[in-house]
Amino acid sequence: MAKDLIPLAVKERVRNVLFHRRIVFGIPFVWLLLFFLLPFALVLKISFSSAVMAIPPYEPVFTLVDNTFSVVVNFGNYLFLLSDSLYVAAYWGSLKIAFMATLVCLLIGYPMAYAMARAPRHVQLVLLLMVMLPSWTSFLIRVYAWMGILGNQGLLNSLLLWLGLIDEPLRMLNTNFAVVLGVVYAYLPFMVLPIYTNLVKLDIRLLEAASDLGCRSLTTFWRITLPLSRGGIIAGAMLVFIPAVGEFVIPELLGGPDTLMIGKVLWEEFFNNRDWPVASALAIVMLALLLIPIILFHRFQSREMEKHG
Amino acid sequence: MVNARKVSFSKVMLVLGLLFLYLPMFVLVVYSFNASRLVSVWAGFSTQWYGALFQDQQILAAVWMSLRIAFYAATMAVCLGTMAAFIITRFRRMRGRTLLSSMVTAPLVMPEVITGLSLLLLFVQMAELTGWPGDRGLATIWIAHTTFCSAYVAVVVAARLREVDRSVEEAAMDLGAPPLKTFLIITLPVIAPALVSGWLLAFTLSLDDLVIASFVSGPGATTLPMVVFSSVRLGVSPKINALATLIILAVSLIAFIAWFLMRRSDEKRLKGNA
């Protein structure tokens, strides 16, 4: 009898555990499926529709009338994006600005993260909070701060005039320079953080071994530290590059009439022209361009999340 | 060994980088006390813009709306994010886990205009099929914010879950504790700091969001970033400087408390190890 009792209890336990697992798995899964993945399918669908003056302002793609199921696929929006040089220029402008900003972030952020990782432990915590603190205050307000600094009558121009370095105000606000500066300023903490996390875990014995074997410190850096922190660099670069490509607030506030960025074009297409199908097609092409960076980031992130400490 | 006292390139960059991060905010704080409307002119110390800020009914209503949404979104995001973190770190052979982990990491980098547009299209479609949501507003912004905030919470909680010693959990389960009880008594207290920091992160992210909220909100619901944006678009406004100063003050205060608590627990841990 006892022999049978134990497996039964174990079976009960296993069933209990599996039941809980299914609930824990099901809730976030369904939520994300419904509110994250499904919406993308809808964007894809609407991108094949055409705009009409109605509510909602697009033609249905799938219709069921008199037992006839019909699918109307309109490639017009994509052809339209290709035919108008504005859109191509906007994609290109976004990629260029995002790339430049990512590069500048890396050049400033890497040495910052390096110095942080080398600091004594109690200082590290303070530095970490100091780097993160700006990103917890309002993003919008931090971008706005530069409007007052870069403007024609702004702080920087007043300072330069007062110093006698320039005779008339430089046009800095509403230029691509201001947009790159704004992206660097807003996203710098996201570059520093993953690199720091990576460098702080670096096995210090490797560096000691290198220096014991007579390796110069710069060589040690190039051949050991930098390659080992590759994961952090990739994560940081993607955390800056991908959102920067679709950035709307920064080009809107700091950019000028010649600043063409796709996030701003999409916004205007949607809110000003109310052309939802074209806005959807713009989003789909943007996603396609960002697919490789997103996969790169995902690979790094899931390795980080699954690794055992 | 690396000399800790030497002035190195990286240390100089760290100081310059921090200056770069803080100077613009410092400027905002200083000019919020400027009596003049213009940035370039200092017309003496004044707190008039703070008075004007607290009389602005539109801003006050938007603050209240934003705080409510952020509170609900952060709370829901902690629940969903913790579950997702559990699946990713613990249920290694579960079917669909890979899909879930990509749905958790993608929102971290997804451009906001795409997320906003896609969610709006979902809500429009849902309203057509089911009649809900009839009006877009607090509820739709809450759903949108919960979705992207839970991804951040999942990352924070997963980092903590990886460090947890599982032997205590396993012992409790072996001794017959049901999974839920094991979670509540053993795991929850250990990951509580991560839940708190995840909640705070989600709260600030929700408070800060302009783009997604603009897409999914209706005429009835205006959040604080929307009000700030429409005023800032027209140029520099001293009232917004005053608002910025208050936000910076609040965040610094919370960061200081967090630092104090973290340092204390750090010291305790070091003492425990010794």
UniProtKB/TrEMBL annotation, chain A:
<keyword id="KW-0813">Transport</keyword>
<dbReference type="InterPro" id="IPR035906">
    <property type="entry name" value="MetI-like_sf"/>
</dbReference>
<keyword id="KW-1133">Transmembrane helix</keyword>
<dbReference type="InterPro" id="IPR000515">
    <property type="entry name" value="MetI-like"/>
</dbReference>
<feature type="transmembrane region" description="Helical">
    <location>
        <begin position="231"/>
        <end position="250"/>
    </location>
</feature>
<dbReference type="GO" id="GO:0055085">
    <property type="term" value="P:transmembrane transport"/>
</dbReference>
<dbReference type="Pfam" id="PF00528">
    <property type="entry name" value="BPD_transp_1"/>
</dbReference>
<keyword id="KW-1003">Cell membrane</keyword>
<feature type="transmembrane region" description="Helical">
    <location>
        <begin position="276"/>
        <end position="297"/>
    </location>
</feature>
<feature type="transmembrane region" description="Helical">
    <location>
        <begin position="123"/>
        <end position="141"/>
    </location>
</feature>
<feature type="transmembrane region" description="Helical">
    <location>
        <begin position="177"/>
        <end position="196"/>
    </location>
</feature>
<keyword id="KW-0812">Transmembrane</keyword>
<dbReference type="GO" id="GO:0005886">
    <property type="term" value="C:plasma membrane"/>
</dbReference>
<feature type="domain" description="ABC transmembrane type-1">
    <location>
        <begin position="91"/>
        <end position="297"/>
    </location>
</feature>
<protein>
    <submittedName>
        <fullName>Putrescine ABC transporter permease PotH</fullName>
    </submittedName>
</protein>
<feature type="transmembrane region" description="Helical">
    <location>
        <begin position="97"/>
        <end position="117"/>
    </location>
</feature>
<keyword id="KW-0472">Membrane</keyword>
<feature type="transmembrane region" description="Helical">
    <location>
        <begin position="23"/>
        <end position="48"/>
    </location>
</feature>
<comment type="similarity">
    <text>Belongs to the binding-protein-dependent transport system permease family. CysTW subfamily.</text>
</comment>
Automatic annotation (TrEMBL), chain B:
<feature type="transmembrane region" description="Helical">
    <location>
        <begin position="139"/>
        <end position="161"/>
    </location>
</feature>
<keyword id="KW-0813">Transport</keyword>
<feature type="domain" description="ABC transmembrane type-1">
    <location>
        <begin position="63"/>
        <end position="258"/>
    </location>
</feature>
<feature type="transmembrane region" description="Helical">
    <location>
        <begin position="108"/>
        <end position="127"/>
    </location>
</feature>
<feature type="transmembrane region" description="Helical">
    <location>
        <begin position="240"/>
        <end position="261"/>
    </location>
</feature>
<dbReference type="InterPro" id="IPR000515">
    <property type="entry name" value="MetI-like"/>
</dbReference>
<comment type="similarity">
    <text>Belongs to the binding-protein-dependent transport system permease family. CysTW subfamily.</text>
</comment>
<feature type="transmembrane region" description="Helical">
    <location>
        <begin position="182"/>
        <end position="202"/>
    </location>
</feature>
<feature type="transmembrane region" description="Helical">
    <location>
        <begin position="69"/>
        <end position="88"/>
    </location>
</feature>
<keyword id="KW-1133">Transmembrane helix</keyword>
<dbReference type="InterPro" id="IPR051789">
    <property type="entry name" value="Bact_Polyamine_Transport"/>
</dbReference>
<dbReference type="GO" id="GO:0055085">
    <property type="term" value="P:transmembrane transport"/>
</dbReference>
<dbReference type="InterPro" id="IPR035906">
    <property type="entry name" value="MetI-like_sf"/>
</dbReference>
<keyword id="KW-0812">Transmembrane</keyword>
<keyword id="KW-0472">Membrane</keyword>
<dbReference type="Pfam" id="PF00528">
    <property type="entry name" value="BPD_transp_1"/>
</dbReference>
<keyword id="KW-1003">Cell membrane</keyword>
<dbReference type="GO" id="GO:0005886">
    <property type="term" value="C:plasma membrane"/>
</dbReference>
<feature type="transmembrane region" description="Helical">
    <location>
        <begin position="12"/>
        <end position="33"/>
    </location>
</feature>
<protein>
    <submittedName>
        <fullName>Putrescine ABC transporter permease PotI</fullName>
    </submittedName>
</protein>
